[in-house]
């Protein structure tokens, strides 16, 4: 079993890496690129039944910055 935490910049936060990626895509011929956001995905292997409350706490307090980032938690069984 594993938990997947996806961390993305909040929509209101400037994402220079996303903007640079969008520009690079246009230079590579993908002209119809809209807004690009760049985040991160963290996979956590779990030996047993997950403590979802604790995983949310870890995602919120350790893996993301709640001021500028949102996170999503997925448990894969």
From TrEMBL:
Where does the record say this protein resides?
Cytoplasm
Could you tell me the EC number(s) of this protein? 6.3.5.3
What reaction(s) does this enzyme catalyze?
N(2)-formyl-N(1)-(5-phospho-beta-D-ribosyl)glycinamide + L-glutamine + ATP + H2O = 2-formamido-N(1)-(5-O-phospho-beta-D-ribosyl)acetamidine + L-glutamate + ADP + phosphate + H(+)
Enzyme class, top EC level, equals ligase
Q: Which GO terms describe its biological process?
A: 'de novo' IMP biosynthetic process
GO CC, one annotated term: cytoplasm
Q: What is this protein called?
A: Phosphoribosylformylglycinamidine synthase subunit PurS
Q: What keywords appear on the UniProt entry? A: ATP-binding, Cytoplasm, Ligase, Nucleotide-binding, Purine biosynthesis
Q: Its function? A: Part of the phosphoribosylformylglycinamidine synthase complex involved in the purines biosynthetic pathway. Catalyzes the ATP-dependent conversion of formylglycinamide ribonucleotide (FGAR) and glutamine to yield formylglycinamidine ribonucleotide (FGAM) and glutamate. The FGAM synthase complex is composed of three subunits. PurQ produces an ammonia molecule by converting glutamine to glutamate. PurL transfers the ammonia molecule to FGAR to form FGAM in an ATP-dependent manner.
Q: State the similarity comment.
A: Belongs to the PurS family.
Q: In which pathway does it act?
A: Purine metabolism; IMP biosynthesis via de novo pathway; 5-amino-1-(5-phospho-D-ribosyl)imidazole from N(2)-formyl-N(1)-(5-phospho-D-ribosyl)glycinamide: step 1/2
Family matches, as Gene3D superfamilies: Phosphoribosylformylglycinamidine synthase subunit PurS
- A Pfam family for this UniProt protein? PurS
InterPro entries per the UniProt record, alphabetical: PurS, PurS-like_sf
Q: How does it assemble?
A: Part of the FGAM synthase complex composed of 1 PurL, 1 PurQ and 2 PurS subunits.
Q: Give the Gene Ontology MF terms in alphabetical order.
A: ATP binding; phosphoribosylformylglycinamidine synthase activity
Tell me which species this is from: Terrimicrobium sacchariphilum
Q: Does the keyword Zinc apply?
A: no
């Amino acid at each position: 079993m594993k938990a997947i935490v996806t961390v993305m910049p909040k929509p209101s936060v400037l994402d220079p890496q996303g903007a640079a990626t969008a520009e690079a895509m246009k230079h590579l011929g993908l002209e119809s690129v809209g807004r690009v956001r760049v985040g991160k995905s963290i996979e956590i292997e779990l030996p047993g039944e997950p403590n979802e409350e604790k995983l949310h706490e870890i995602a919120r307090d350790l893996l993301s910055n709640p001021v500028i980032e949102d996170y999503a938690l997925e448990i894969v069984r």
